[in-house]
Amino acid sequence: MVENVRELLKAHEGLKREVYLDIENSSMVPTEVLEAILPYFNKRAYGNPTLTHKPGWEAFEAIMESAQKISGFLGCKSLEEVNFTPGETEANNLALLGATLQTRGKGKKIVISEVEPLSIMHVTEMLTKYGFTVSKIPVDSEGFINLERLKEAVDGNTVFVSLSAVNHEIGTIQPIKEAQKIVKDKNPNAIFHTDASDAYGKIPFSVQDLGVDMATISSYKILGPRGIGALYVKEGVNIERILEGQIGTQKLWPGVENTPLIVGFAKASELAFQNLEENVRHMRNLRDKLINGIFEKIADVRLNGPKGEKRAPDNVNISFLRCEGEALTIELSLNGVYVSSGSACTRRLLQPSHVLVAIGRKFEEAHGSILMKVTRYHTEEDIDYVLEVLPKAVERLRGISGTTVVE
Amino acid sequence: MSRVPLPYSQKILELFRNPKNLGRMEDATVSAVAGNPQCGDMITFYLKINEQEIIEKATFESYGCAANIATSSIATEKVKGMKLEDAWKITWKSVAEEVGGLPAVKFHCGILAVGALRRAIRAYYKNKQIAPEWLPKELTFEEKQALEEEELARILEKKMKMAEEK
Fold first, then answer.
1. Which CATH class is domain B10-165?
2. d(Cα B21, Cα B58) in Å, to the nearest integer?
3. In the 8-state DSSP scheme, what is residue B139?
4. What is the pLDDT of residues B133-160, one digit of tens each?
5. Are strands A82-85 and B30-36 parallel, antiparallel or unpaired?
6. Phi/psi at A151 (nearest 5 deg)?
7. Is B63 touching A (CB cutoff 8 A)?
8. Record: contact B10-A4, CB cut-off 8 A
9. B1 at A interface, C-beta within 8 A
10. Which residues pair with A233 in a beta bridge?
11. pLDDT at A366 over 70
């Protein structure tokens, strides 16, 4: 199989330009972040932060300084509230399982929305096997959660509510503060968690202002290294560990801390927040240039998610009718543009993206969807290049589908 | 729902980039469709068949992934110049082999391609109102699978819509 992949890679030789827009699924690490990380592998702080020697104390210092920075960007009360985990998936699992294990006996209902990431959807599905019931709040055609339905769903038995701050696929910025109030009014004991991975470093917010009990953030979504994320747990909120072993500086996650990645996460956070307003303006400009360019140049397209200020500044998600998404990702890749699709063909089952189905997209609209995220590092020229390549790619694939699918 | 790596073969990539026998055939003797837009995979097969029941020309259109396009392209190549009876014997496995193997999650693409071909052959005899002895009355594996996939996609869409309305 790896032979096949070598051939696929060979087919990409001689690309005149490359534009990586698949930040949803992994990201490149900018040189400035990489340079901050590298000394922590072999020059300093390579010890275990709980041990009584210089490299250990150096690691302790580096981890605490990183937690301090991140707690500042999140708007925490103290750095103690930042718990490092190996990523967004692990942080979401920790939040859900840690909280539901803790409240065993107090109630058995979990409330989420229909558009949560799989590390929330699948874990709640698993919990239904252990006697929990899950209520999924519907969303409107732009992906906004129905607050009335949320109000109805939360009751005295509700132990946990999880709603993403920004939708990972279609960029909908949710009214989390309002949702949190609704939940706490109905049941002050219900734990409110938000996956803020697509909000952190993209829109201004503070966990204290939102009033959430827990929040997940992810390093690679802000161009930090993969393999590191964090769960904010508000002081006074108790959750259980879901893994056991040697506990070091991280009371909720056993094992030896990955100091270089933690340092990289903090560095990436600094860069994202350094000029947040300017970064947001830059991303929003490129986002709208890309969306408007696609609408100008290509017929029969649909924007998935809201427009303008209600949409995350980096998110572009568009369905190309009569064009299958997986084929489009390959065609674009051969031209140096890297994106992902909500098509069923990139997945194990026939089912396309649950987010797109939840906002009322037909299966055939979801199959032709492409997700792209811009960063502060992308340029106008990058977007021009995408707008040069994309119409040709769509035209070629629509040529292959011909008269097969008639709208 | 999860993703799988898709290490497509060189042959699939080549046929994806330069598919053979592509396009609608205006003077086709018969055409048939397999899959539907809900599946995200849909193929139309066009056959031009002469009096000796030989396929003179075969073309396709595909709304589908790279594997779908490649297997459809191969299937049209294979049947060109074949007698209908021989074309019927082409299996999805032989098509999959010829594209250098398919990832397991893409087997259905090859099955759909052969399903469309067999539906076209069946339609030809139905139009002529002949039933050759070699043509099985029962649906074959590929035809049944195509039906199942179409049905499954419809049910899934309905189910997901209903879950949403609840």
1. alpha beta
2. 7
3. P
4. 999 999 999 999 888 888 888 888 777 7
5. unpaired
6. -60, -45
7. yes
8. yes
9. yes
10. A214
11. yes
